Amino acid sequence: MVKNIMFYIFIYIFMIGCNGGNLVTETCPNYYLEIEAPDLEMDNNGYYHMTYLSQYIQTFTVLEAMTGSNNEYQKVSWIADKEVMVEGYWTNCVNGNSYTDGEGIAKTVLSTWQELVGDTIKIYCGYDDNCSIQYIDSLEVIVN
Q1: What is the per-residue pLDDT across 84-120, written as a single tens digit (0 to 9) for each?
Q2: Which residue in 59, 62, 81, 142 could disulfide with 122, CB within 3.0 to 4.6 Å?
C-alpha cells in the first residue's frame, strides 16, 4: 500500500515537473512592458523633451505603456520622481494608475509646472501579469 502511494506521488511529481513549464506558457502569454511619450521628441541620449507652455499653470502630455496583454485588462501603476506643492498638497507629476485597453495599451497624463522647468523627470511604470510576473520600465523627460 505504501509502495503504491509512493509510486503515485513519484509519477505525479514527474508529470508536473515535465509539464509545468508548458502549462505556464499556455496560461501566461508573452507579456512585456515598454513605455513611451508619443507626442514628445526623443534626443540621441534617449531623453524625451517637453516644452513648458508659460501661458498656462500646467503643461500636459500623454504617456503610453504597451503590455502585449491584448484583450486582457491589466492594472498599470505609474509614479514620477518629482512632486510639486499644489494648494497645500504634494502632487505627483503622473496619475498613479490606469488600465490597459483591448490592444494592451495603458495611458496616463504627465503634468509639469513652472517649478520643473530645467529638471529631468523620471517616470516609472509597472504591472504584474496574471502569473504574478512583474514588469517595470521607465523613461526620462526633460522640461524645457
Answers
A1: 999 999 999 999 999 999 999 999 999 999 999 999 9
A2: 81
